Amino acid sequence: MEIGTVVCKDETPNTNNFYFVATKESKVKKGLFVQTKTREGLLIGRIEEIIKTNRYFMQPETISNYETSINLHFPTDKWEFLLCKVYCLGILNETVKRANYPVSPGETVKIAENENLEKLFKFDKNGLNIGKLIGHNLEVKLNLNRLFQKHLAILALSGAGKSYAVCVLIEELIKRTDAQGKVGILVIDPHGEYSSFAYDENFSNKTNLIKGKDIRIGLTNLSTYYYTWFLPNLSFAQERDLIKIVEELKKSGDVFGIREVMQKIEESENIKQATKDVLFSTLHSLNSMRLFGYYDTPSIDSLIVPGQVSILDISEITNEKKKQMIVAYFLRELFNKRIKRKIPPFIAFIEEAHNFAPERSYKESFSKEIIEKIAREGRKFNGLLCLVSQRPVHLSTTSLSQCNTHMYMRITNPYDLKHIGESSEGLTNELLKSITTLEVGECVLVGEASSFPLFARIREKVVKDIETRKSLEDECIDYFEKKKNNRKNVRDLMES
Ligand SMILES: Nc1ncnc2c1ncn2[C@@H]1O[C@H](COP(=O)(O)OP(=O)(O)OP(=O)(O)O)[C@@H](O)[C@H]1O
Ligand SMILES: [Mg+2]
């Protein structure tokens, strides 16, 4: 569709920019992709700015003379027109090449055709359909290999639609056929937002929901390395005695948990009483976390199944250390198995990634090390991460810099904007400004997955929500009713 004519203005048309006057009926919008012919081929550009102009209102003296009556004396509305400034992306052939010659003034400008945009962005008909290109009726279908050529980061302020976008990505990953290649999916879910997959008939048979209270790290097969890791405050001698006991238990071939370790320490004649006391109290506090058992639950092998999603719902765990241990242990074991090719390729979505891989932390962070390791080395083994965070400024720079596709949704915090501006190569000041004006559900994709910054509106998700949060009023009424019933029960008991 023709939308205007290229004009000469300032020092344009040049190889970077041109202006065009929009036709009256055209619905031009900022961000729209346009195409025009040049002697090198088809030039694709993006409307960077729209200026409204009217020569009747250019001279302040004229307006001052006529005061408000100018519109009565002259056909002023006929002289109003739109001037659009276009940024030239390049000449479209099989690939997009930088333009070496400008477009000629007088050339017609059209809205970029969908097939040209598909070529421009290298969309893939088998790719992940995340929604529509803003301003165009075109589905954004991202090639899986390019989206996860390394890792993905989804960054935005709270409520901008990050988790919603993750749900859409998971749906698209689950939908893939054997011929397209299915990947195993893991979600670290600190808010219990992904349980809906387990209760939706379309997804329940592809979902493995594990509640925090059921998660266990099994001691029977636990490498002794973890004892040093989980119990960093033991002295060298205490650690040596503990590991000796654990190795004896392992040799016996019996299953064992913390209680059996403690019993064995008690029976030992070679450990000093002072060491025993320290080990008892340390193991006791570890036991009180209710995280350790005989075997891993879930088992590492069952966590990653091609085309299926496993959700570690740790929303009801209040102990930060316990959450970190779970994330650290399961990610480390998965990654080690992936290196040995014992499990299929996987993508781990980590919500609240800044809590599990903080840039700076005042307390020990068990999970940071493994997340940074996977961020650095995971690509080689197709053990991949999607880091989701509302505070990019607090997220480990090492991890963030290894994500070579970034999906930004609305961000307004100046510190976060500065941080992402520094950590993402493809972000111009213009794009940073647009991130502050995005609406809920809109995103800009920058990096490997898309040849040019891509503005998309995330599509509606298919998975049906389950009501996880009650309204404030309902919760207060329920609480009052519960208290009233409790009091009544106590009274009835006393009177009986
Ligand atoms: N693409 C979308 N289409 C329709 N509604 C959306 C979309 N994205 C987000 N929403 C709406 O916005 C709400 C908040 O989105 P979401 O929970 O994904 O935000 P978030 O960025 O994950 O926030 P938080 O950082 O607090 O976890 C959703 O419950 C949903 O109602
Ligand atoms: Mg969220």
Structure, explained:
With 496 residues, this protein is an alpha/beta fold. It has 4 domains: 2-112, no CATH class; 139-211 and 299-458, Rossmann fold, CATH 3.40.50; 216-296, no CATH class; 472-496. 36% of the residues lie in helices and 23% in strands. The protein has 18 helices and 20 strands. It has helices at 60-66, 70-73, 114-121, 144-147, 162-175, 196-199, 225-230, 236-252, 258-267, 273-287, 300-303, 320-339, 353-356, 366-381, 397-401, 414-423, 429-437, 472-495, and strands at 2-7, 17-22, 33-38, 41-53, 81-92, 96-97, 108-111, 128-133, 139-142, 151-155, 184-189, 207-211, 217-218, 292-293, 309-313, 346-350, 383-389, 403-408, 442-447, 454-458. The protein has an 11-stranded mixed β-sheet with strand order 9-8-20-19-18-10-17-16-11-15-12. α8 packs across α9 (258-267) and α9 packs antiparallel against α10 (273-287). The longest helix has 24 residues, at 472-495. The chain is elongated and about 105 Å long. Bound molecules: adenosine-5'-triphosphate and magnesium ion. Adenosine-5'-triphosphate (ATP) binds at residues 156, 158-164, 390, 440-441, 458, 460.
